[in-house]
Amino acid sequence: MKKTYKPMLAKPTPKPFSKEGWIYEIKWDGFRAIAYVKENLKLLSRNQTQIQEKFPELQELTILTQNVVLDGEIVIIKNKKPDFQVLLERNQATKPLEISIQTKKSPASYMIFDILEKNQKNLTNLTLIERKKILRQTVKEGNHVFITDFIEKKGEEYYKIVIEKEFEGIIAKKKNSIYQPGTRSNNWLKIKKTKTVDCIIFGYTKGTGFREETFGALILGLYGLKNQPIFIGKVGSGFSDQDLMKLSKKLKDLKTRKPAFKTNLKDVYWVKPKIVIEVSYQTLTKEGKLRMPIFQTIKTQKIPKECTTQQRTNPNLDPYYSKRDFSKTNEPKNNKKIEKDSIFVVQEHHSKRLHYDLRLEREGVLKSWAVPKGIPLQKNLKRLAVEVEDHPLDYAKFEGTIPKGEYGAGTVKIWDKGNFETKNWENDVIEFLPKGQKMDGKYILVRLKKGNQKNWLLFKGRE
Length: 463
Ligand code: MN
Description:
Helix content is 13%, strand content 38%. The protein has 463 residues and is mainly beta.
């Protein structure tokens, strides 16, 4: 075992598939590591650093097998799924005592999915399925060592189950493929969860090349608050040949002369809004259009009228979502309107530094400020209020603990809440009349011109 191996890598692919000759396994969210097991254990990370000292519990490997080179992922399982954040924290520990405390608190597991060498014999030229068999025969499972299960052929079904359990995604591997060290290969494909939206096809563009007979892209829309169709982008990828045929046949029967909305697209063929499809996307643009949309499936059960902009999150909330991992924090995800009147809330937030978060409903989100010294209850007090990212409406009801390591970690308690009336809302001045238990009367927010544009002053005014 003089030789070291670089791990074989998987190519990202947009959606799951079910194919003869492929197997599917869970995509573990952890540290990739190749284990060289002799009397001693050596664990090499993706960049060939030795990390065995950081995970003393994985010494168990030397009891469970001998004289092998294994490929797997180091994970820390919390609440039945890998917690990458905890793993990162554990990785911070460097002193032996620290490491041993962390080991007890958050033990790691090594999820093995491949074997590269056995008794000095290189196995990388065997097929994956042969290697999997040898792996089972060669390695016993222990308290920290597990062999990753896989299933054959049914990739789409498996993906659904895995995503429901809130894992990151799946890896598809070709059964008869060899192990190609250090290569990102088409024989290993990773499929990660993305956001999806059900939308309506309002038209299509002409195809070129082999798509000439079908279509180029589909024009997508959703119904807005007043049931008016709203353009949300076009999708031109993710279609199988079958999808292309099936959709273009349906679309040709639905042609209409009447455009559903204005777009700057040329040569659009409009269709009656009858077909609903599911589309995945990365994020929304500022204008609320889909970024990197990929066709997933036709939704025959879904009624077009039900595809409204409500199912999309408010693009103003993108910064809110990007800062939070909802598998770790139970802060609100939804943005449903609670009451008819505008709501305000002040939350006492015991994070690194105690502060009070003032939130005012405006344009479908909660405009938010952090007030370090608290809300002034007397007229002569002026307090600094730092503008922070918009929060979803459901946040007005939130009380609880944001876990350690997460954005804003600490406890949140509602300090005051109620409705408010807006007297004046300008770019730099907001005057409002909250009707809360503590906040009552007229309040004024004024943006400070100097320095950070996010700094405001909050004070009580004359009614
Ligand atoms: Mn806060």
